[in-house]
């Protein structure tokens, strides 16, 4: 039952049409904001800003670049672990992230940054938010890794970014919940979106490609590049759009500590769960990051350093046990095939993060935060000037449900679309195989190199 | 027809002599500038600078480190794609970059930073410029990858940096053209310099090492590390020496967008050009970067966000088609063997960047830039206070021709020098092979590990 | 003589107990400092601080992230060079660094940051210092790589961090020596600590695992990732906690130059020492970094640009010769088995760094530094307001001896503890083998993929 995986028309068509659409929409809607426009000097004079350093660029650019590395190298290399799907892991991640950030600038712009003149004015914060937005889709890709075509991924991203922008608007603007590192908005939404899609696209005969559904020694080392860049830069992720000054500073400390605790717990659970106490790379590559996910909502709050350690401690225990017990259960019983185990790394820690955020917010007090500090941290201003910390906790919890709902409903809809037999997805026996969508160089036994001189995959030289 | 590739005398001699020369010249000429000297505190008082943050270090250091990563990991790993030349790719890149930055500090210093006391005063901007300068030579290395000896590369770099400094002086100082990301100064010059050298060093029997002139699965994944770090940090490259404030901010936005568009176009053209729509890693690793190259000159201009998307869109189409059609044509007809396809990634997008810069500059207006903004962006001050945008466009175009001319003429001269039979370059049959210049560990079949216990390449243990 | 390497109880126990201890101690002792607390806004008003940018976060965060990358990717990937110990190299590095930074925050906090209320107040500088502290233990790990169990490494780290904090307190506070990049405090101490441990744990029959004590082609390329990130970010390492303004700026320049010179010298000595002038990856991966180590103490001093080049030049000569002659000698004669050659990369360059620091400090003068500059650079204030540069040189030298003494004595003690037969270390024949502590995926010949469909190491799927 061979499937047609020829995407020679569909992939270029989608890429071209969508890129041209982006150009037109950017032409109509997107302009520089006052900090990235040459009129910044006039703006400075008007606002009496004493130095160029007060340009938001200098507050946020280092964090932006760290986030950028997480999106492209972090997520990309984390998905190279499969023995013959490294090209697809890092390559399709690259494709959909590059498309997604453009569409995100528009979608988020329409919801958050529309100026009086009907234009979206962009600066460095928009770039960070676009990277954040696309992270949700990359998480969803993790559940589908190896089982979908790049065309399907482009569709998944188009709708994913759209849903994200709406969901984010409801949670951050309407509910006025805080979520600087996106435990709810990014991780919970993205994970349930991807898991539901994977459930709709369930492949009963996936065991036909079982021999490819694992790693080899070197591919596990490649994946560690992804893990480590995610782990190291996660403090930047959770602080990138936090408040200037103490907000960014505290978010970094909290995330750094949660992640440190995650590593020890993951090693502990991984070792105790195997017969001879041997460690499993799957756990080390993934569950060590759970603390970063779970600290996303509360990163800016006064959760205290030991509170952060506890969050990392608990979330990684749950995450590692998820890899050991839940993933096989979900596959067998719930018919959800989750290639990267995003349920363990993003869904559960994301929900934990939302709950931690709600509790921490509800218990915030002026004695701990200071009067001004409380107002600044939760932005109890203007429309929500009278909101108390207690009530804020309730809205935080509401935000979590919105994120889950958008993930489930959105995933079901998009999964339905992706089930159409027009997207060039691989047959069950060809999953997890780069041969389907990539020109893969023929590997040869090293010792045979000299006796097989007929290979040629030189740069820019098409096969004869 | 075995060639003598023994570099046991020549390489150490060149390294020692040149390093000692650097020490002496630095001793005579190079000092800290007022921002990196302990007298900064006096300077601050004199100039009434209120805070340490106004030290240029804090404006530019994050961008510098990103550029640094591009030079050493970006260029280095991009050149690891060959199946048996990864050591040479990343290792010789390391060697010539480390030498080049020292020589660049001197050459650029003499031309741009000479103080009244005859000393070159250096700070963080000099470090960035030295990294930029060396990028031209690393591009040139891309054309020669696998076919030259490290001694030849040192010579290529010595002359390359020298030519760069002169060319840069003419373009930036005499013509007063703008080129913050170096589309002309770095990419166009570097590419034509390397291509001309490769043309002079043409090897008619290179097909003898054809079996090594390709990638294997893992080497393609290694190369993606290079690609992604170049891609992610390119906004820093194009903004690192841009104007404080809006200049750096805008350069980042423009480059980010051009690169995002490049990815989609590259995937589209790569897929449409293969029989079954399969993607080619060569394209993904290279042409996705064309937008960054093409945005180098105009990065600081008010090219608008959609203008940036168009630049990325067009340059990657041309770049990918270059890999498909031009590289084979150049090799067969023009006798130019371009290992990494730098003509497609640097020459053509660099020229596009120069043209885009000239057009954008010529069409700049006070209504878009604001009166002060126009003056600040183009530095219409002092000697060029009366220059109009139109005329600036002409000078920008002139700069492009200077860059091409320096590349062609300089490459011909240096190519002639490198053709001398004294540099220890490999025979045609030994190209693209690390065995020639490196102690390569003997790979063994994994299953044989236990039965062959006689291997020893331990750290610091010379072969018996 | 099979050893029991089952760590199913001991490793989880150690991880859990220590992580819970951390949580309790953090609960009792650790709080946010005034720059990371929500009361920062009140602090700003009290201290009349005009802008959020004066929060130390903005001075140090970019450098912190670079240091963080060095610790986890730099050290981690540098240790992936062994053909079958890449998991252990990067994985155990991850484990002990994540534990060490928590313990370091406490230990360094008690010695340096204890507030009047008995709490340790932390901010970004503490995070940097914790990363620094753990670097000493990672260096020590380098000597023991492949020969110890993760439980031993946790013990090594617990005591290593403790010793570090005491030694650092004596050198920096009591002796008032300067050591911003830690030539003495980090590298000298860490190296002698590790070498002494390795000496105590001497394995006479280690040749039984000789076949694994080398690299393969790809593992050497992985190790270059570590080398390059260490090399590129070393300027951040040596400047991260330097003085605001010119201090950080100068430390970057000095380190950049020392490292550049190191590369050329390493290539020269490596080539000259081999029969056909072939380069050895061991040297390139390691000795190119010696300049960074040797510039650690004097990085902030007015050592002049050419002085920095000389430091890099000399330290890499010694380091490379160390790999060629000293390591084999130490193994045969002194019974010190130094897997990564840390004696060559950290011990000798660290001592050089200490000596360079002492000499440079002793020869500092008001004519070069300026009156204020001299006071600022050496902190000749309060208790040491009357100290002269000459005397400072003596104290610097004293600091070097303290570092060596702590390394030797501490290493002997901890080595004795680690010799107990309870830690699950591998037998001599099983050293350098990931199989002992990791679930290693079965590699299969690529050509056999389709005929062996019985493999399964999918994410989260426990072996049947």
Automatic annotation (TrEMBL), chains A, B, C:
The chain crosses the membrane at residues 9-30, 63-82, 94-114, 126-146, 153-172, 184-202, 214-233, 253-272, 284-303, 309-326, 397-418. One of its GO terms (cellular component) is plasma membrane. GO terms for molecular function: ammonium channel activity. Pfam families: Ammonium_transp (PF00909). GO terms for biological process: ammonium homeostasis. Keywords: Ammonia transport, Cell membrane, Glycoprotein, Membrane, Transmembrane, Transmembrane helix, Transport. Functions as an ammonia transporter. May play a role in the elimination of ammonia in the gill. PANTHER family: AMMONIUM TRANSPORTER, AMMONIUM TRANSPORTER RH TYPE C. This is Rh family, C glycoprotein, like 1.
